[in-house]
Write a structure and sequence with these properties.
A 5-stranded antiparallel beta sheet has the order 4-3-1-2-5. With 251 residues, it is an alpha+beta fold. The protein is rod-shaped, with a radius of gyration of 41 Å. A hairpin with a 7-residue loop joins strand 3 and strand 4 (44-45). The protein has helices at residues 17-26, 80-116, 160-171, 190-195, 212-217, 234-245; strands at 3-7, 10-15, 34-36, 44-45, 131-132. Among the domains are: 3-53 and 117-132, no CATH class; 160-245, no CATH class. The longest helix is centred in the middle third of the chain and has 37 residues, at 80-116.
Amino acid sequence: MQILINRDGQQFGPFTLDQVNQALAAGQLLPTDIAYFEGLQQWTPLTQIQGVVIPGAAPMVAPVPVQPEVAAVEPVMSGAPIVEGATAVAAKKKKIIMISGISTGIIAVTCVLLFVWPGFLKSPEVPKVEIIKPNPVVPGPPDGSGLQLPDVSDLGPVGYFADIKPILDAKCVSCHGTEKKKGDLDMSNEQGLAAGADGNPVYVANKPGESLIVELIYHPDDPMPPEDKEQLTEDEKKKIVAWIAQGAKFD
C-alpha cells in the first residue's frame, strides 16, 4: 500500500510501509505524524496504523504456548524398573513439548517481523524523504480591477458603424454571429452585441475596465480571438476601448 504522511499541513510521500518504518527509526518521521492510504476513512495517527513500528515500542508478538508441567509419577507398586520407566517417559515428553513450544515461538516472532518489517534481515537503508510543496495557486482570468488599459486619450470620436462593426465583422463574427453563436453571443449586429452573452452584458458604457469584451481581448494567457484565428491589432483594441469609454453609442 502507498502511505501519505501529513505534518502540520505539509504532505509527504507516498511511501511503502517499509519506508515509513525506516524513516521512523531514522527520526525523519515522527510518531505524532498522521497518515492516510486507500481504504482509510480519514487521516489517522501513525501509532494506530497496523504494521507501523514506533521506535521504543515493543512489536506485537504472538504468545508462545506454555504446556503444563507433567507431575512426577509416584510409584504405585514396588519395583524400581516401573518407576524409572514412567519418569523417563514423562521427562522425555516434557522436553519434546518445551522444544516444540520454543520452535513455535521463534517461528511466530519471525513471521511477525517479516510482516511488520519485511526488510529487517537486510541492511537498513534510510530513504530520502522528499517534501511535497503545496501547489501554487493559479490565478483566474482578470476581473478588470488590475487590467492595464491603453491610453486612448489621443483618439478622436470612435463610431460603431464606421470603426467598430468592421473590426467585429472581420475578427469576431466567424465565431459569434447568426450562424455560429458561441457563448450565445451574436456580434454581427448592434442588437446582438447589446444583448450580451448568455444574458450578461459584454460591455459597460463609459467603463472599459469593467467590460468583459475588454478583459477578453487583453487576457494575458487566453486572449480573444483564439490563437488559431486572426488576431486583433493594437490599434483595433484601442478603438474598442475608446468606443466603450466614449459611451458605446450605436450612431
